[in-house]
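User: Okay, second chain of the day. Same drill as before: sequence in, structure tokens out.
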Amino acid sequence: MSVIAIVLFHVVLWHYLPEASNSRPFLYGMWKFQNDLLGSVRIPLLLTLSGVLAANKIARGFRNPGATTSAIVNYYFYVLWLSIYALFFLFTSGPLPHRIGSFPIFLRELLVPDTTLWYVLALAVYVLLMTVVRRVPWWTVVLVLAILAITFGESGRFSGMWSKLPGNALFFAIGVYASPWLKELANRVRLWFLGPLILLPMVLLFADGRLKIPVLGDVLGLLVKLAFAALFLVAVILVCRLRPVAHAGRVVGRVTLPIYVLHALLIYVWLLLIAGPLQGTMTTVLGNPLLAALYPAALTAAVVAIALAIHRVARSCGLGFLFVAPPQIRGWAANAYEPGK
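Assistant: Same drill. Structure tokens below.
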């Protein structure tokens, strides 16, 4: 659900809001509010759950190949898909978001990301970081990462997707440290939990809007993200108690990598089409109130469906290495960090 929310966020941010800003002010405001809300939860929740999944590997340390293999595999995917993005930009033109415009920029992005792929690199960095500091008291790590989250948060001090790495490490760490408790949470959540969890971010947002102290505003901004992440986590747990939702979640949850790495490229292709051969499409869509209201959700569903179809075709055509690390990569990573070597 977090990954689908990321797709929807980019559909709205890159495509819908620029088109609807003048012709559909009400829908523009509605979808902008939705995007602002998603902005406070999609990455924090996704990274928290990623930390939960990585916790056991991190706890075993470097004497077990799990953590280093995970980091190397994630960096493999980052370099692979960064190269695919660079090739795509090489053969296309136009003002597409996060364009890789030259070979020097590509080389820089191998270590300093400025595309939506930053999350894939972040997983590699975070796993190594948390393994290195696994013996440091948890509260020390959380405090340092909270300071980084405030410094690199929404204050606008830094631009570029690279700033999301230090700015979001806290949420991954929370997933690692709170892993046992979060795994138990699914059985303990009750419907009444939603009441205080809805109230908490509202109170924090109210305080943030009236207190004009810069540093305090940054702290409140971080607390809002944490509160929204908790709210949506509980909401998702409750919704996933419905069997059809749980089934769909399991199906999509096993193939989040293809959706994540492909969604930006698919949106780019659509942006090029409506600027060229399909010019005038948005005029038709925005001219119909129902189509205009449902368009972002429909396009998001189409992007996800096409990404899953590409994933299936790729695996059947011998291109599985695009989404599953080859055995050679995993074997080399495990052997390179075997105890005693």
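The two ends are 41 Å apart (CA to CA).

User: Thanks, on to the next one.
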